[in-house]
Amino acid sequence: MHKSVQDIINMKKEKKKISVITSYDYSLASLCDKAGIDVLLVGDSAGMVMLGYENTLNVSMEQMCMFTEAVSRARKNSLLVSDLPFMSYQASIEDAINNSGRLIKAGADAVKLEGGSIMAETIRAIVDIGIPVMGHIGFQPQTTTLSQGYKVQGKTKDTAMKLIEDAKELEDAGVFSIALEMVSHEVAEIISQTVSVPIIGIGSGVGCDGQVLVIQDLLGMYEKIKPKFAKRYMNLSEDIIKSLEDYKNDVISGKFPAEEHWFSMEEEELKKLREQIGG
Ligand code: KIV
Protein backbone atom coordinates (compact mmCIF):
# COMPACT_ATOMS: atom_id res chain seq x y z
CA MET A 1 0.00 0.00 0.00
CA HIS A 2 1.39 3.39 -0.93
CA LYS A 3 1.70 6.36 1.45
CA SER A 4 -1.44 8.37 2.15
CA VAL A 5 -2.01 12.06 2.72
CA GLN A 6 -2.49 11.25 6.41
CA ASP A 7 0.93 9.54 6.50
CA ILE A 8 2.49 12.79 5.25
CA ILE A 9 0.61 14.87 7.84
CA ASN A 10 1.72 12.44 10.56
CA MET A 11 5.36 12.82 9.55
CA LYS A 12 5.26 16.46 10.65
CA LYS A 13 3.69 15.45 13.98
CA GLU A 14 6.43 12.84 14.44
CA LYS A 15 9.08 15.43 13.48
CA LYS A 16 10.18 13.32 10.48
CA LYS A 17 11.44 15.29 7.47
CA ILE A 18 9.52 14.73 4.24
CA SER A 19 11.29 14.11 0.90
CA VAL A 20 9.50 15.19 -2.28
CA ILE A 21 10.81 14.98 -5.84
CA THR A 22 9.21 15.86 -9.16
CA SER A 23 8.46 12.95 -11.52
CA TYR A 24 7.03 12.93 -15.01
CA ASP A 25 7.87 9.57 -16.59
CA TYR A 26 7.70 5.85 -15.80
CA SER A 27 11.43 5.03 -15.70
CA LEU A 28 12.60 7.78 -13.36
CA ALA A 29 9.45 7.58 -11.22
CA SER A 30 10.15 3.86 -10.61
CA LEU A 31 13.63 4.76 -9.32
CA CYS A 32 12.31 7.59 -7.10
CA ASP A 33 9.73 5.21 -5.65
CA LYS A 34 12.36 2.49 -5.07
CA ALA A 35 14.61 5.05 -3.35
CA GLY A 36 11.89 5.61 -0.76
CA ILE A 37 11.01 9.21 -1.68
CA ASP A 38 7.86 10.09 0.31
CA VAL A 39 6.01 12.12 -2.34
CA LEU A 40 6.26 12.10 -6.15
CA LEU A 41 5.12 15.45 -7.51
CA VAL A 42 4.02 15.57 -11.14
CA GLY A 43 4.89 19.26 -11.33
CA ASP A 44 3.97 21.57 -14.18
CA SER A 45 7.74 22.18 -14.33
CA ALA A 46 7.30 19.30 -16.80
CA GLY A 47 6.58 22.05 -19.31
CA MET A 48 10.16 23.25 -19.01
CA VAL A 49 12.22 20.14 -18.30
CA MET A 50 10.23 17.62 -20.37
CA LEU A 51 8.65 19.73 -23.10
CA GLY A 52 11.18 22.55 -23.53
CA TYR A 53 8.86 25.53 -22.92
CA GLU A 54 10.38 28.73 -21.48
CA ASN A 55 8.06 28.57 -18.45
CA THR A 56 5.15 26.55 -17.06
CA LEU A 57 2.32 28.58 -18.61
CA ASN A 58 1.70 26.49 -21.73
CA VAL A 59 1.27 23.16 -20.00
CA SER A 60 -2.16 21.65 -20.72
CA MET A 61 -4.44 19.39 -18.69
CA GLU A 62 -3.96 16.67 -21.33
CA GLN A 63 -0.19 16.79 -20.83
CA MET A 64 -0.51 16.76 -17.03
CA CYS A 65 -2.86 13.75 -17.24
CA MET A 66 -0.41 11.90 -19.49
CA PHE A 67 2.54 12.52 -17.12
CA THR A 68 0.38 11.57 -14.13
CA GLU A 69 -0.68 8.29 -15.76
CA ALA A 70 2.95 7.38 -16.50
CA VAL A 71 4.08 8.11 -12.93
CA SER A 72 1.11 6.29 -11.42
CA ARG A 73 2.06 3.12 -13.32
CA ALA A 74 5.49 3.29 -11.68
CA ARG A 75 4.81 4.19 -8.09
CA LYS A 76 4.28 1.54 -5.46
CA ASN A 77 5.07 3.28 -2.17
CA SER A 78 5.14 7.07 -2.56
CA LEU A 79 2.22 9.49 -2.41
CA LEU A 80 1.44 10.94 -5.86
CA VAL A 81 0.53 14.63 -6.13
CA SER A 82 -0.16 16.34 -9.48
CA ASP A 83 -0.11 20.02 -10.39
CA LEU A 84 -3.18 21.75 -11.76
CA PRO A 85 -1.68 23.69 -14.70
CA PHE A 86 -2.12 27.42 -15.41
CA MET A 87 -5.76 28.41 -16.08
CA SER A 88 -7.14 24.97 -15.22
CA TYR A 89 -8.48 26.24 -11.86
CA GLN A 90 -8.33 30.06 -11.73
CA ALA A 91 -11.38 30.96 -13.84
CA SER A 92 -14.03 29.09 -11.84
CA ILE A 93 -14.54 26.64 -9.01
CA GLU A 94 -16.27 24.37 -11.51
CA ASP A 95 -13.08 24.25 -13.62
CA ALA A 96 -11.03 23.57 -10.50
CA ILE A 97 -13.22 20.65 -9.42
CA ASN A 98 -13.49 19.11 -12.90
CA ASN A 99 -9.77 19.33 -13.55
CA SER A 100 -8.86 18.03 -10.08
CA GLY A 101 -11.10 15.07 -10.85
CA ARG A 102 -9.28 14.46 -14.13
CA LEU A 103 -5.91 14.30 -12.35
CA ILE A 104 -7.30 11.92 -9.74
CA LYS A 105 -8.70 9.68 -12.49
CA ALA A 106 -5.25 9.78 -14.14
CA GLY A 107 -3.78 8.30 -10.94
CA ALA A 108 -2.98 11.20 -8.57
CA ASP A 109 -3.81 10.96 -4.86
CA ALA A 110 -3.94 14.73 -4.47
CA VAL A 111 -3.63 17.93 -6.50
CA LYS A 112 -1.47 21.02 -6.03
CA LEU A 113 -2.39 24.56 -7.00
CA GLU A 114 -0.69 27.92 -6.66
CA GLY A 115 -2.03 30.92 -4.77
CA GLY A 116 -2.59 32.30 -1.26
CA SER A 117 -5.79 33.61 0.33
CA ILE A 118 -7.29 34.32 -3.10
CA MET A 119 -7.46 30.55 -3.68
CA ALA A 120 -8.95 29.65 -0.29
CA GLU A 121 -12.53 29.31 -1.54
CA THR A 122 -11.44 27.15 -4.49
CA ILE A 123 -9.34 24.92 -2.23
CA ARG A 124 -12.24 24.52 0.20
CA ALA A 125 -14.51 23.43 -2.65
CA ILE A 126 -12.04 20.82 -3.94
CA VAL A 127 -11.35 19.49 -0.43
CA ASP A 128 -15.10 19.39 0.32
CA ILE A 129 -15.71 16.94 -2.51
CA GLY A 130 -12.96 14.71 -1.08
CA ILE A 131 -9.87 15.55 -3.13
CA PRO A 132 -6.80 16.39 -1.01
CA VAL A 133 -5.04 19.64 -1.97
CA MET A 134 -1.45 20.81 -1.54
CA GLY A 135 -1.12 24.62 -1.60
CA HIS A 136 1.79 26.50 -3.17
CA ILE A 137 2.81 29.97 -2.00
CA GLY A 138 5.89 32.18 -2.06
CA PHE A 139 7.31 32.29 -5.57
CA GLN A 140 4.49 31.02 -7.81
CA PRO A 141 5.92 30.06 -11.22
CA GLN A 142 2.54 30.40 -12.99
CA THR A 143 2.06 34.06 -12.06
CA THR A 144 5.02 35.57 -10.16
CA THR A 145 7.12 35.32 -13.32
CA LEU A 146 4.53 37.46 -15.15
CA SER A 147 4.64 40.29 -12.62
CA GLN A 148 8.08 40.14 -10.97
CA GLY A 149 10.28 37.63 -12.80
CA TYR A 150 12.30 35.21 -10.66
CA LYS A 151 12.44 36.87 -7.24
CA VAL A 152 12.89 35.66 -3.66
CA GLN A 153 9.70 36.22 -1.65
CA GLY A 154 9.15 37.36 1.94
CA LYS A 155 12.17 39.60 2.35
CA THR A 156 10.33 42.49 4.03
CA LYS A 157 8.16 42.54 7.16
CA ASP A 158 4.99 43.23 5.16
CA THR A 159 5.53 40.58 2.48
CA ALA A 160 6.51 38.11 5.21
CA MET A 161 3.28 38.88 7.14
CA LYS A 162 1.25 38.32 3.96
CA LEU A 163 2.91 34.92 3.46
CA ILE A 164 2.18 33.92 7.06
CA GLU A 165 -1.47 34.97 6.64
CA ASP A 166 -1.70 33.09 3.33
CA ALA A 167 -0.33 29.92 4.93
CA LYS A 168 -2.89 30.17 7.76
CA GLU A 169 -5.74 30.73 5.31
CA LEU A 170 -4.71 27.73 3.24
CA GLU A 171 -4.54 25.63 6.40
CA ASP A 172 -8.08 26.81 7.32
CA ALA A 173 -9.25 25.99 3.81
CA GLY A 174 -8.13 22.38 4.37
CA VAL A 175 -4.84 21.85 2.51
CA PHE A 176 -2.89 18.80 3.72
CA SER A 177 0.43 20.46 2.96
CA ILE A 178 1.94 23.61 1.41
CA ALA A 179 4.83 23.99 -1.02
CA LEU A 180 6.82 27.11 -0.16
CA GLU A 181 9.01 28.33 -2.99
CA MET A 182 11.98 30.72 -2.80
CA VAL A 183 11.07 32.32 0.53
CA SER A 184 13.70 33.73 2.89
CA HIS A 185 14.66 30.97 5.30
CA GLU A 186 13.68 32.94 8.43
CA VAL A 187 10.11 33.39 7.20
CA ALA A 188 9.93 29.78 6.00
CA GLU A 189 10.88 28.59 9.48
CA ILE A 190 8.25 30.84 11.12
CA ILE A 191 5.57 29.54 8.73
CA SER A 192 6.59 25.92 9.39
CA GLN A 193 6.26 26.54 13.14
CA THR A 194 2.98 28.43 12.77
CA VAL A 195 0.81 26.03 10.76
CA SER A 196 0.08 22.40 11.61
CA VAL A 197 0.30 21.06 8.04
CA PRO A 198 3.70 20.12 6.56
CA ILE A 199 5.56 22.91 4.76
CA ILE A 200 7.57 21.57 1.83
CA GLY A 201 10.30 24.02 0.94
CA ILE A 202 12.06 24.64 -2.34
CA GLY A 203 14.76 27.27 -2.03
CA SER A 204 13.33 28.15 1.40
CA GLY A 205 15.95 26.82 3.79
CA VAL A 206 16.30 23.99 6.26
CA GLY A 207 13.57 25.06 8.69
CA CYS A 208 10.79 23.57 6.53
CA ASP A 209 9.14 20.22 7.32
CA GLY A 210 10.32 18.74 4.04
CA GLN A 211 12.06 19.59 0.79
CA VAL A 212 11.20 19.30 -2.88
CA LEU A 213 13.52 19.47 -5.88
CA VAL A 214 13.01 19.14 -9.61
CA ILE A 215 14.57 15.79 -10.49
CA GLN A 216 16.45 17.15 -13.52
CA ASP A 217 18.13 19.72 -11.25
CA LEU A 218 19.13 17.07 -8.72
CA LEU A 219 20.54 14.79 -11.42
CA GLY A 220 22.24 17.60 -13.34
CA MET A 221 20.22 17.07 -16.52
CA TYR A 222 18.76 20.54 -17.20
CA GLU A 223 21.18 23.21 -18.31
CA LYS A 224 18.90 26.18 -19.11
CA ILE A 225 18.35 27.39 -15.54
CA LYS A 226 20.51 26.46 -12.55
CA PRO A 227 18.81 27.87 -9.45
CA LYS A 228 21.06 28.59 -6.45
CA PHE A 229 18.88 26.37 -4.25
CA ALA A 230 19.01 23.29 -6.49
CA LYS A 231 21.72 21.00 -5.13
CA ARG A 232 23.21 18.83 -7.86
CA TYR A 233 23.84 15.31 -6.64
CA MET A 234 25.37 14.25 -9.94
CA ASN A 235 26.24 15.53 -13.38
CA LEU A 236 24.20 13.17 -15.50
CA SER A 237 24.32 15.34 -18.64
CA GLU A 238 28.09 14.76 -18.87
CA ASP A 239 27.73 10.99 -18.39
CA ILE A 240 24.91 10.78 -20.94
CA ILE A 241 26.80 12.77 -23.57
CA LYS A 242 29.96 10.68 -22.98
CA SER A 243 27.97 7.42 -23.37
CA LEU A 244 26.33 8.67 -26.58
CA GLU A 245 29.71 9.67 -28.03
CA ASP A 246 31.09 6.20 -27.16
CA TYR A 247 28.06 4.60 -28.84
CA LYS A 248 28.49 6.70 -31.99
CA ASN A 249 32.19 5.83 -32.20
CA ASP A 250 31.43 2.11 -31.69
CA VAL A 251 28.88 2.22 -34.53
CA ILE A 252 31.41 3.89 -36.84
CA SER A 253 34.23 1.50 -35.93
CA GLY A 254 32.04 -1.64 -35.95
CA LYS A 255 32.76 -2.35 -32.29
CA PHE A 256 29.02 -2.35 -31.70
CA PRO A 257 27.13 -4.61 -32.06
CA ALA A 258 29.32 -7.50 -30.93
CA GLU A 259 28.46 -11.21 -30.98
CA GLU A 260 26.65 -11.07 -27.63
CA HIS A 261 24.20 -8.53 -29.11
CA TRP A 262 23.05 -10.45 -32.19
CA PHE A 263 21.05 -13.60 -33.03
CA SER A 264 22.12 -16.57 -35.20
CA MET A 265 20.45 -19.15 -37.47
CA GLU A 266 20.99 -22.90 -37.06
CA GLU A 267 24.02 -23.97 -39.17
CA GLU A 268 21.87 -26.43 -41.14
CA GLU A 269 19.20 -23.84 -41.98
CA LEU A 270 21.85 -21.37 -43.10
CA LYS A 271 23.38 -24.00 -45.39
CA LYS A 272 19.97 -24.69 -47.00
CA LEU A 273 19.39 -20.96 -47.43
CA ARG A 274 22.75 -20.49 -49.13
CA GLU A 275 22.07 -23.40 -51.46
CA GLN A 276 18.70 -21.91 -52.46
CA ILE A 277 20.03 -18.45 -53.18
CA GLY A 278 23.21 -19.88 -54.75
CA GLY A 279 25.51 -18.30 -52.17
O1 KIV B 1 6.19 22.25 -10.82
C1 KIV B 1 7.01 22.04 -9.92
O2 KIV B 1 8.04 21.40 -10.12
C2 KIV B 1 6.73 22.59 -8.60
C3 KIV B 1 7.80 22.47 -7.56
C4 KIV B 1 8.91 23.35 -7.91
C5 KIV B 1 7.28 22.74 -6.20
O3 KIV B 1 5.70 23.13 -8.39
Gist?
With 279 residues, the protein is α/β, with parallel strands linked by helices. It has 2 domains: 5-234, TIM Barrel; 239-277, no CATH class.
SSE blueprint and pairings:
Layout: H1 5-13, E1 18-22, H2 26-34, E2 39-42, H3 46-49, H4 61-74, E3 79-83, H5 93-105, E4 110-112, H6 120-128, E5 133-138, H7 144-147, H8 157-173, E6 177-181, H9 185-194, E7 199-202, E8 210-213, H10 215-219, H11 236-253, H12 267-277
Parallel strand pairs: 1-2, 1-8, 2-3, 3-4, 4-5, 5-6, 6-7, 7-8
3-methyl-2-oxobutanoic acid binds at residues 22, 43-45, 83, 136, 179, 181, 202, 212, 214.
What are the key terms here?
alpha/beta; 44% helix; binds 3-methyl-2-oxobutanoic acid; EC 2.1.2.11; magnesium ion binding; methyltransferase activity; coenzyme a biosynthesis; 3-methyl-2-oxobutanoate hydroxymethyltransferase activity
Distinct small-molecule ligands in the complex:
3-methyl-2-oxobutanoic acid
**In sequence order, what are the helices and strands, one letter per element?**
HEHEHHEHEHEHHEHEEHHH
- Count of discrete structural domains: 2
The number of distinct helices, counting runs of at least 4 residues, comes to 12
Secondary-structure class: alpha/beta
Using the coordinates shown, work out and report the CATH topology of the largest domain.
TIM Barrel
Strand order, largest beta sheet:
1-2-3-4-5-6-7-8
Proportion of strand residues: 5-15%
Helical amount: 40-55%
Number of strands: 8
CATH H-level name of the largest domain... which superfamily?
A: Phosphoenolpyruvate-binding domains
Amino- and carboxy-terminal Cα gap:
61 Å
Segments where pLDDT lies below 50 for 5+ residues? none
Shape: elongated
Sheet with most strands: 8 strands, parallel, barrel
Task: Give the CATH level 1 class of the largest domain.
Answer: Alpha Beta
What is the mean pLDDT?
Answer: 97
Named at the architecture level, the CATH assignment of the largest domain is Alpha-Beta Barrel
Q: Could you tell me the radius of gyration in angstroms?
A: 23 Å
